[in-house]
Amino acid sequence: MDNTDLPVLVPVVISGGAGTRLWPVSRETFPKPMMTLTDGESLLQKTFNRVAALPGVREVVTVINRDIYFLARDILARSAARAMPCSFLLEPVGRNTAAAIAAAASWVARRHGDNALMLVLPADHLIEPLESFVEAVAAAAAVARQGWLATFGVAPTAPETGYGYIQAGPRIGAASELAHLACRFVEKPALELAKTYLASGDYLWNSGMFCFSAGAVLAELQRYASDIADQAAGSVSSGRELRAGDQLSLELDPAAFGAVRAQSLDFALMERSQRVAVVRNTMRWSDVGSWSSVSALLPQDGDGNSVSGDAVLHNTRRCYIRSERMVGAVGLDNLMIVDTEDALLVAHREHAEDVRHIVAALQRKGHDAYRHHRTVRRPWGAYSVLVEGERFKVKRIVVAPGQALSLQLHAHRYEHWIVVSGEALVENGTQRARLLANQSTYIPAGQKHRLHNPGSGELVLIEVQCGNYLGEDDIVRFEDNYGRAPAQAVAAQASARHA
């Protein structure tokens, strides 16, 4: 395939979804696409590397929650796509794939015209070999140029009950031997029905990948889901552009995007449109949707165990163990053990899909373990919670060279900062201070303050918080270098939470 096959191609990477079945590694502020596999690459980095191999790419667009955009930006910088033109659409809230893709289509049409082809890719899939992926994209692009909405159907290798299926009908024209009319979309079937689908040869796994022109998908959305199309377009037209060097981002308008109904593109459009093609392919594909999927990526020992990290096993069979510290397993069978700094999962393999219920329970309890790891990355650096208890919390804060936290205040907590290493410039009310190692300051509740690292090395400090409420949402930002929520919006949210 040469560059003339794909004259204008815009890969759109959808980095959404909570990945709740991959807790405790996947969290709200560090979701599944950011997970690092055993080869040291994250799923998002693999996706960026994949699109870098495609010819004819005009721009790479990534749709992602604004609060974790900086994670994707850093991963992009380590990927093969780092030299390509890239932009980010920043979602204020998640509204499922129909809204995300509709907004991306408006953005692509505005920048490259209605005929530009969008290749929509989830950020958290594994696809091999690369050659099969490139071949499938060429086939999808061929029918997309004729006005079809193409989806990618993977030839099933087993009667999977965790995937949706697409029934492939007759071939579509002469554009591609791989393109068929999509006759029917089926949700995750029961095992016996999945066996029937596998035997028929007519049903393909629904990969959640698409290819269509920006104009075609917008026209079909107007026909079948005009409210989604209009509100998503409004969030783009009234959005706020941010530029960092050569990299452009668009912060989607919070009011407009927040009003879009949450629905998948399959439900909103693909299952209803008469212009849907499915491209049959035989690439090895996985959505890496559970710990069972992750364990299948690793080699097994003679007893069927797969281990990532340090573990000593005795009389243990068919187990998956992932841990950053030593784990001993004795007399276990068919379990999954995933250990992180602050949470431990022990589950039976047959209940891998049910891990999401643990996350739901943590959300109901308001427990931070569904949202954060103990170490949380921020655009300015990172912090780690060392210990916490009744009315106190101790953090280790690391600020990267030249970076600064927002000008902010907290309504309910008092903070004590002690510099461990590096140099700190501190704004504390009307006071300005320069602190070095072993020096400290105190910040009362309700006082504006800011921390800046003016040095060429990391600034490390210990923060001791005291107060009757120590949640991370007790913050009002007034100025911020990273385009995060404006002070008015955050203040309104904080008042509503603690009124």
Automatic annotation (TrEMBL):
Keywords: GTP-binding, Nucleotide-binding, Nucleotidyltransferase, Transferase. It holds the Pfam family ManC_GMP_beta-helix. Residues 11-295 form the Nucleotidyl transferase domain. The keyword Nucleotide-binding applies. SUPFAM superfamilies: Nucleotide-diphospho-sugar transferases, RmlC-like cupins. It comes from the Bacteria. GO terms for biological process: GDP-mannose biosynthetic process; polysaccharide biosynthetic process. The keyword Lyase does not apply. CDD domains: cupin_PMI_typeII_C (cd02213), GDP-M1P_Guanylyltransferase (cd02509). Residues 366-480 form the Mannose-6-phosphate isomerase type II C-terminal domain. Its EC number is 2.7.7.13. It catalyses: alpha-D-mannose 1-phosphate + GTP + H(+) = GDP-alpha-D-mannose + diphosphate. One of its GO terms (molecular function) is mannose-1-phosphate guanylyltransferase (GTP) activity. Residues 311-362 form the MannoseP isomerase/GMP-like beta-helix domain. InterPro entries: GMPP_N (IPR049577), Man1P_GuaTrfase/Man6P_Isoase (IPR006375), Man6P_isomerase-2_C (IPR001538), ManC/GMP-like_b-helix (IPR054566), Mannose-6P_isomerase_type2 (IPR051161), NTP_transferase_dom (IPR005835), Nucleotide-diphossugar_trans (IPR029044), RmlC-like_jellyroll (IPR014710). It is an enzyme of class 2 (transferase). Belongs to the mannose-6-phosphate isomerase type 2 family. This is mannose-1-phosphate guanylyltransferase. It comes from Cupriavidus alkaliphilus.
